[in-house]
Every structure is written in structure tokens, then in C-alpha cells.
Amino acid sequence: MVTLNNYLLVSGLLFSIGLAGVLLRRNILVIFMSLELMLNAANLSLVAFSRFRTLEGLPNYNGQVLVFFIITVAAAEVAVGLAIIVALYRQRQTTHVEDLNSMKF
Amino acid sequence: MLFFAVLVVLLRQPVSSALSLVMAFLALAALYVSLEAFFIGVIQVMIYAGAVMVLFLFIIMLLDLKAEVRRKWNLAATLFAGFVVLVFVLMIQSVLSKFEMGKAPFPKLTDSGKSDVWHIGETLFSSYNLPFQVIAVLILIATVGVVVLSKKELK
Fold first, then answer.
1. Single pTM value for the model
2. Is residue A105 part of a domain?
3. Cα end-to-end span (Å), chain A
4. DSSP state for residue B151 in the 8-state scheme
5. Rounded distance, CA A78 to CA B60, Å?
6. What percent of chain B is modeled with pLDDT above 90?
7. How many structural domains does chain A have?
8. CA–CA distances in Å: residue B104 to residues A27, B100, B107, B115
């Protein structure tokens, strides 16, 4: 029997994998992909809760609408972020974060 | 799904990372369908596995990225990152083991005779009309911003 806790655990593990990717990887594009993983972990727990807290025998659609908004914002964020990465690459010819140290104290 | 998510982090070739991310998103869409959120599953496939990942692959192709060369491994940073992630996993584990409500099975759904999309559309355009329009403005701003950022003479 699959319960809410199983979905929440998968969501938490997915978030941790994304967090590990952001902290460990040094390629800015891969860091960006790991960020997407973390966003999706949040979406998964929202959908699981929306299915769990039923209203009159229907899933709670407020949660699913929120997921819809998150996906929209994430798509806009990816577009802007990738444009910034391309602009950065044109200036510096690198995607390695340790080469981008002009703001380092 | 978790297997492909791990591959995203571990593979050294950015293209392989991106393709395993596509597989992770498709598996996530399957999970949404198993939670009877069909609309979310469909837009997950269309927007994430479709549009966003095509954008990622396109940028990787445009920048002509090679596999990362091995560099001097920063041991302190790696250990600290591993420690943070481990603490986070243990925290989730301990919270979930105390969360009794989540151990109950999912409640049964009644068939309302209307589709998933109908209900989401109704909620979206009645309770969430203003946020919907704000999101539309946000996308417009993002579009303009991307055009400005990709201009050649960026000063």
C-alpha cells in the first residue's frame, strides 16, 4: 500500500539529490539542472498533499493550481537563467564556476 | 526516477546529465498520474521534458560543452556539502517517521463526472484569476528580459 509518507520521502530524497548537485558540481549548467530537480521535488509533495486532503471526494485542486503556477514560473526562470549563462559564456568563455571569481572577496 | 536523478549529478558529460534529467522528469510525470493529477502529469511532460529540456540541450549545443576535465578536488567543500546533504536526509527521515497522519492510505475519490482539467480550469479562473494575470505579465517581462540579455553588445 503506497501512502503519503512514501511520496514525501521520494520528494525529500529528490530535493537532497538536487541539493547535492548544486553544492558538489562545478559546471554552471549542471547546477542549473539540479535546481530544476529541487523545484520538481516541491511540486511532487504539493501534488501528493493535494491528493491526500480531499474535498468532497475530489482532490484539493488549490494545490494543483499552485503546481501549475510553479511550473510556469520555473519555465520563465529557465529562459532568463540560460540567457544569462550564454551572456556570461560570451564574456568569459567558460561555464566552470571556479573561473568566475571576479566577485570573490 | 531517483536513479536518473542521481545520474544527473554524477555524470560528467553535460549532455548525458540533460538526457537523464529528461528521464527523471518523465518518471515524475508517471508519479503524478499515479496520484490522479492527470493535467499536471501532461504539462510536466510537455513543459519540462519538452520545452525546458530542449532549451537546455540547445544551449549545451550552442556553447559546445565538453566533458568536465578533472581538476584539483576541493576536499573541504566536498565534505561540507556531503555533510549538509546527509543532515538534510536524516532530518526528513526523522520528521516523516513521526508524521502519523501520512501513514493512512489515500482517501477514495468519487467520480464527479467532470475531468481533472475542468476542475483545475474552474479553480484557476475563479479563485486564482488575479495570480493568473500576474503570471502572464511575468512571462511577458521574462521574454523582454531574455531578448535584452541575448543582444550582442551587452555592456
1. 0.87
2. no
3. 53
4. -
5. 14
6. 39
7. 1
8. 42, 8, 8, 26
Provide the grid cell at A34.
539540479
pLDDT in tens, B12-24: 788 888 999 999 9
Residue A15 domain boundaries: 4-99
Q: How far is B123 from chain A (nearest CA, A)?
A: 7
Cβ-based neighbours of A2, under 8 Å, separated by 6 or more: B34, B106
* Residue A104 is assigned to a structural domain of this protein: no
Residues 62-101 of chain A whose Cβ lies under 8 A from any Cβ of chain B: 62, 64-65, 67-69, 71-80, 82-87, 89-91, 95-96, 98
pLDDT value at position B70? Answer: 67
- Determine, yes or no, domain membership for A61: yes
Structure letter (DSSP) for residue A102: T
Residue found under cell 578536488: B73
Q: List Cβ neighbours of B113 (8 Å cut-off, separation of 6 or more).
A: none
Contact B96 A5 (CB under 8 A): yes
> Tell me, what CATH number does A30's domain have?
1.10.287.3510
Helices (H) then strands (E): counts for chain A: 3, 0
